[in-house]
């Protein structure tokens, strides 16, 4: 299958999703869209997953976006009112979920960017909380050069994550930037060697997974919600988000573990 969902035994509570179609630049065809959407739904419903890692197969491309050779003909068939096979139809229906555009994964996502991230690959990256990239990775949003509007995460999430001028440069020029530039403008956390990429991502994922799961989920959700909330309301809302956590079993366990000088054993309750 071109999308793999794994639970590595050496990384408890972490899920690994791999886009495995390197011969086609890990481009997303209808079948991959179905499988990727299914993987995200499975992760979202599994309380045992405290962090997810997304990467691409091969050493050249993370994800080049949609596979135009397959998706455009199917879209044209649908526009003409023609029947398409059920899996292709479901794939096109699953685009937003597959790209995490409006679908809340509910758990932190780390992107291990093993190569070029273009269009839909860029959209997937924007849905993540942490990002590590190899030195030869490039990043581009090329929709306006094709006469299209970026309907994934780009116009919604990008200006909320990096400076206005940098976001506009990427959106309006359609020109790629390299990994060094991406790190400079805060699009990725840091650049790491290809041989260290997954290890770096897993180290960060394990660090997240070691923390209290309810608190991690609440902090992640709070940042997303409060980002566009007016300041006075944001302070009120953050208190409402944080207050219930103070009486959880995990909060009491953290206090006991501190006194007993041992790692806490989280129950997620």
Could you list some keywords that capture this structure?
alpha/beta, globular, four-stranded mixed sheet, six-stranded mixed sheet, 2-enoyl-CoA Hydratase, Chain A, domain 1, 269 residues, Lyase 2-enoyl-coa Hydratase, Chain  A, domain 2
Protein model, in words:
It is globular, with a radius of gyration of 20 Å. The chain contains twelve helices and ten strands. It has two domains: 207 residues, Alpha-Beta Complex (2-enoyl-CoA Hydratase, Chain A, domain 1); 48 residues, Lyase 2-enoyl-coa Hydratase, Chain  A, domain 2 (Orthogonal Bundle). Strand 2, helix 1 and strand 3 form a beta-alpha-beta unit. A six-stranded mixed beta sheet has the order 1-2-3-5-7-10, with helices on both faces. Strands 4-6-8-9 form a four-stranded mixed beta sheet. Helix content is 45%, strand content 14%. The longest helix is centred in the first third of the chain and has 16 residues.
């Amino acid at each position: 299958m071109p999308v793999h969902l794994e639970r590595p035994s050496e990384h408890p509570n972490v899920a690994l999703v791999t886009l495995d179609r390197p011969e086609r630049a890990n481009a997303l065809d209808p079948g991959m869209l179905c499988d990727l959407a299914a993987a995200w739904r499975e992760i979202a419903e599994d309380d045992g997953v405290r962090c997810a890692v997304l990467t691409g197969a091969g050493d050249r491309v993370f994800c080049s976006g949609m596979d135009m050779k397959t998706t455009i003909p199917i879209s044209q068939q649908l526009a003409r009112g023609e029947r398409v096979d059920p899996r292709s139809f479901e794939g096109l229906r699953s685009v937003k979920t597959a790209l995490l555009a409006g679908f809340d994964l509910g758990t932190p996502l780390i992107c291990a960017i093993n190569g070029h991230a273009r269009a839909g690959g860029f959209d997937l990256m924007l849905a993540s909380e942490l990002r590590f990239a190899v030195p030869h990775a490039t990043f581009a949003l090329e929709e306006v050069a094709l006469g299209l509007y970026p309907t994934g995460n780009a116009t919604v999430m990008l200006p909320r994550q990096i400076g206005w001028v940098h976001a506009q440069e990427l959106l309006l020029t359609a020109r790629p930037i390299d990994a060094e530039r991406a790190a400079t403008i805060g699009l990725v956390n840091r650049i790491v060697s290809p041989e260290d990429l997954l290890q770096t991502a897993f180290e960060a994922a394990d660090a997240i997974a070691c923390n209290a799961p309810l608190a991690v989920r609440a902090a992640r959700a709070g940042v997303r919600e409060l980002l566009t909330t007016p300041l006075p309301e944001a302070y009120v809302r953050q208190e409402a988000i944080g207050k219930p956590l103070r009486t959880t079993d995990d909060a009491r366990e953290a206090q006991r573990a501190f006194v007993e000088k041992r790692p806490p054993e989280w129950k997620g309750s």
